Amino acid sequence: MKIPSEKEKFSERLKLAISVKYSNSLKNSEIATKFNLRHPNEPITQQAVYKWLNGLAIPAFDKIQTLAEWLNVKPEWLRYGILENEKVDVIDETLIGLIATLSDSQKRAILQLILSFQEQ
């Protein structure tokens, strides 16, 4: 079993954050447009989005901050996978690793299941 790289882990967190915010999948061009409307610095391209979503690159921190604000997640979680002052135990780390291997539709199903637990 291949261990995901940091870029791949970032990609999975970004995909998850986007899928939570938008129930339907967005095209790379839509993500780039929505990002560029919010980011005060240089715009990004569809190719940059492709690299982010396919585990080929991690954006600079200013872009991570813009993504995090837009997607309502913590920048630390988006970049590193943990929340500020949070320790990850073995169970959490195992779950994260297993979830990263699932398809997008399976991840959405797991997300819905977890959200239903929080509503109880």
TrEMBL record:
<keyword id="KW-0238">DNA-binding</keyword>
<feature type="domain" description="HTH cro/C1-type">
    <location>
        <begin position="44"/>
        <end position="78"/>
    </location>
</feature>
<dbReference type="InterPro" id="IPR001387">
    <property type="entry name" value="Cro/C1-type_HTH"/>
</dbReference>
<dbReference type="Pfam" id="PF01381">
    <property type="entry name" value="HTH_3"/>
</dbReference>
<protein>
    <submittedName>
        <fullName>DNA-binding protein</fullName>
    </submittedName>
</protein>
<dbReference type="GO" id="GO:0003677">
    <property type="term" value="F:DNA binding"/>
</dbReference>
<dbReference type="InterPro" id="IPR010982">
    <property type="entry name" value="Lambda_DNA-bd_dom_sf"/>
</dbReference>
